[in-house]
Amino acid sequence: MQKTFYQKELVIKAPQERKGANNNKKDIEKIQSWLNLFAVQNPNSGTATDIDGDFGPATEKAVLNFQKSNGLPQNGIVNQTVFDVLVSPLKKAFESPISGNNLRELILNTAKNHLKNNPFELVINSQSNTGPWVRSYMDGHEGTEWFWCMGFVQAIIDQAAAVQGKSFKTLMPLTYSCDTVGTTGIQKKILTRYQTARTNPALIKPGDIFLLQKTPNDWIHTGIVTAVHADTIETIEGNTNAGGSHNGNAVMNKIRNYKQSKLDFFSIESLV
């Protein structure tokens, strides 16, 4: 795999605890981030707390509640064993074995595996597009300006291609820009424009990448096509929400009407 930054998100340097001698702000922020991500999926857990790098009484209580929810010894200390449980969704998303008879199936199954582990962004220091999931998809980058939909797409294709010993960078450059991928598609003649896709949907295949067009050479959102129907496509896409925003906060399974939207399609066939 080319995109391996997620591995840094799976470890802390030392056990962290209230008034701990080895406490450090970055590790505490990681812990607080995962406590909040756990709370998103388990709203009654009592693990939501400020993400400020300070292991105070509120963070200690959140840790105790997390430990109780997961059947762990309740001591308020986060060592690597406890942290492993906190970060297990990320580890499962990036390291669970993926099966598939071909690259397209591998891409779909990889995307579905990430989806079921609930990737979600956080707001830290008043900055959206932050947190461990965003950093993992964006190779360490985060913050309001770091839209992460293409980072998600490339992470999925990278992970799937690596199963077959292939590099996704033979298909497209490592980038976070929809424009770069769209331009690459034009240059390689593997980008189907929305006008053509509407009249010939057979050109769209599961595992391909959709690019939402703003103007003919400006694209603002992307995702993985998982199924094609008469008027709609099903997708798995990052940095979106229920309304299909290009700057949402989660990975979601979406239905999009490609007959009414300006969706261009980047083919992965040359990598297959």
- Number of extended strands: 8
Low-confidence stretches: none
Structural class: alpha+beta
- Under the CATH scheme, which architecture of the largest domain would be assigned? Alpha-Beta Complex
CATH class of the largest domain: Alpha Beta
Within the CATH hierarchy, at the fold level, what is the topology of the largest domain? endopeptidase fold (from Nostoc punctiforme)
**Gyration radius from CA atoms, angstroms:** 20 Å
Percent in strands: 15-25%
Number of helices: 9
Inertia-based shape: elongated
Distance between the termini: 16 Å
What's the pLDDT, averaged over the residues?
98
Order of helices and strands: HHHHHEEHHHEHEEEEE
What helical percentage do the residues reach? 25-40%
Characterize the largest beta sheet: strand count, sense, and whether it forms a barrel.
6 strands, antiparallel
User: How many discrete structural domains?
Assistant: 2
Largest beta sheet: what is the strand line-up? 3-8-4-5-6-7
InterPro entries: CHAP_dom, Peptidoglycan-bd-like, PGBD-like_sf, PGBDSf
Protein name: CHAP domain-containing protein
Pfam families: CHAP, PG_binding_1
